[in-house]
Amino acid sequence: MDYSPELGGIIYRVASLARRTGGISFAGGYPDPDLFDADALAAAYNQVFRDGFRASLQYGDREGYRRLRERIATLCSTAERPVDYQEVIVANGGQQGIATATTVLCRPGDHVFTEAPTFPTALHVFHQAGLKGQGIACDADGMLPDALEAALRRQRPRLLYAVPSYSNPAGALWSLPRRLRVLELAVEYDFHIIEDDPYGLLWFDAPPPPTLLSLAARVPGAAERVTHVSSFSKTIAPGLRTGWMIPPASLRDQFVHTKLGTDIHSALPSQYAIDRYIGQGDFDRHLPKIRATYGERARAMHGAILEHLADRVECAPPRGGMFFWCKVRGGGDAQDLMAAAEREKVFFVPGVAFYPGAPDRATFRMSFATTPVEGIVEGVRRLGRVIPDA
Amino acid sequence: MDYSPELGGIIYRVASLARRTGGISFAGGYPDPDLFDADALAAAYNQVFRDGFRASLQYGDREGYRRLRERIATLCSTAERPVDYQEVIVANGGQQGIATATTVLCRPGDHVFTEAPTFPTALHVFHQAGLKGQGIACDADGMLPDALEAALRRQRPRLLYAVPSYSNPAGALWSLPRRLRVLELAVEYDFHIIEDDPYGLLWFDAPPPPTLLSLAARVPGAAERVTHVSSFSKTIAPGLRTGWMIPPASLRDQFVHTKLGTDIHSALPSQYAIDRYIGQGDFDRHLPKIRATYGERARAMHGAILEHLADRVECAPPRGGMFFWCKVRGGGDAQDLMAAAEREKVFFVPGVAFYPGAPDRATFRMSFATTPVEGIVEGVRRLGRVIPDA
User: Rounded to an integer, what distance in angstroms lies between the CA atom of residue B170 and that of residue A150?
Assistant: First the structure.
């Protein structure tokens, strides 16, 4: 695997350089803190302080707080795939879901396939677990089934890691047929899938197709191969480190035992507060505001790219999430542009950090999540002075 | 390793049986929820809601919240071993410290030595990591250096796991000479030590000797072999899942990378709240109350054992912590007493759950932490009818 912690660290280095410089940053992978529903969350905590606080301070169930698990089950249920709360294990963000699934499913030397590009902190887990990583080609409609099948004929992986809805960094949205085809391939070639879904609720104009968790109900044999992980990091707040994992039924006990060994269970006062927050309707009330804000910023970034960069950068406008994935036309290395970008005080992350194998060096990631519209337009305008003509 | 998750699960089964029965339970490993300083903690959270809440909701440093790390550094510092905040990594309770150290230090097949008896959820981690466990004989003054050295001559372990102050379950307190001798042996035989110290502040009449972390400063070569882990679970509240790890300097980056892969960082609002809680003096004000309450209960349990069980049970009264470790005189199997105990509605945990290898089946653990004095006296009186004459 070409990934290394130093390579993954480039994101932190660019983001902190941007903070110090005080320029326009498209570099972070963070949600906009101005969109945190802080008052309503404080009110939810205060509801807990009045009722349930002492229970939340004690050791609790290893799987998490039952009422929150029920809310998560509701959130993840569809008509064709109802989720029972007993299937839900609360985790410290989606990251712990990825790490737990990797521990349960993989042994050193196993092969893992991912989208190319993919989420670096997942690569970090696979790297630490001693796995061999391979990227599968994707376009704006997700992983290319033909590319996956060609890779499967050469190498059977233990695991496929995927973010089918508005991935970090590609912002891609897997189409329904591709979702179903990948599930069929999982059965045919006998591998597991981690479906990482932190952005699925952050759609702009229309919801994404059903999750792999849900669609697995249509594909015989697939349900035993899908582990769904997600979190409230992008919809409520990442600092709460509250997410979940829904493993296949046959692996549930192994997930619970692994989670127990890791940290007994996740912190409870935040689980209680999130339950109250959802219960008093704040989650459903606030989510449209996040969607509208990110959607507006994505459209602004797309418009600015068309105006200032159309002849020099290719990209597909995302239909949800937080990221634009761009490619310098005519090739070149996005890392070579960073000195000029720093002089213009505008920041992005070069694509090199996002690949399990050989990277496409012409790519780079731009987050529109944390910059208001005027800043986005000005930042892209500056990039017009940074990126050379093709 | 004889340990299995099913064996470790006996503690949960007895504790939940006790809850359902409504009897007198010495079975739990929980702190007394009536001793949670809930009002002051809620006030600390509310201080965060007024100042710092939005920052606590965002992603933060992988090592944890700097102000809390500074408080932990102060808590762990001694004159001979000052701790810098940069050495401290916040973890989800001491458990994550044990798990992280095991991931960083060990490979499947490595040998780990522990006290016999020892903490079952640590055994759970070692079992999952594929380690070979071996228990070292102990008495009320801690691990027997001669027994350790004899074992070291037969087998070099990668790791020694120890709870030198008021361990769960033995309640033992390692003497200063034994602490120093074990550190010398770590250097001589080249193994690492996880010092797990969740109970060190819960002393009754006098503080324990310095931690291994501190004493390592006196033993050339020892500092690079001690990983100190602890938590606020027994002094503030376990539901907050907030603890820490202080690894050797040369391993710090590996610990941070492993923690990053596990869950990016620990939840922040609770770290902010604990910082405010300590900052407004509540921690120092409340701790003596916990010490006094547990101390009173330990003395009551000791008195009751002397009155009702002296001829049938041997035990050394603990000088801190939450547990009495007892042994039925003349042998026998504590598990055989559980049906009679259930009829008398009094509950304890048989010792079989606490050994990495062959258990001493005559032993059992009694927690005095959650039962007021009258209940303790009555519970031990009932045990007098349960435990047969030697």
Answer: 59
Q: Dihedral through CA A168, CA A169, CA A172, CA A173, nearest 10? A: 0
B96 to chain A, closest Cα gap in Å: 5
Residues of A (236-255) whose Cβ lies below 8 Å from B: 237-242
User: Which domains are seen in chain A, by residue range?
Assistant: 5-36+284-386 (3.90.1150.10), 52-282 (3.40.640.10)
Residue of B nearest to A123 (CA): B261
Spatial strand order of the sheet with A243-246 comes to A89-91, A243-246, A226-231, A192-196, A159-162, A111-116, A132-139, A142-143
Helix axes B268-279, B282-308, angle to 10 degrees: 90
Q: What is the DSSP letter of A207?
A: P
Dihedrals φ, ψ of A329, to 5°?
Answer: -65, 140
- Compute the distance between CA of residue B373 and CA of residue B378 in angstroms, rounded to an integer: 9
Nearest CA to A326 among A342, A304, A343?
A: A304
Q: What share of chain A is helix, strand, coil (3-state, %, to 5)?
A: 50, 15, 35
Tell me: the pLDDT tens digits for A291-333? Answer: 999 999 999 999 999 999 999 999 999 999 999 999 999 888 9
- Nearest-CA distance A377 → chain B (Å): 25
pLDDT at A18: 86
The alpha-carbon gap from A7 to the nearest alpha carbon of chain B, in Å, equals 13
Tens digits of residue pLDDT in B201-244? 999 999 999 999 999 999 999 999 999 999 999 999 999 999 99
A93 touches chain B (CB under 8 A): yes
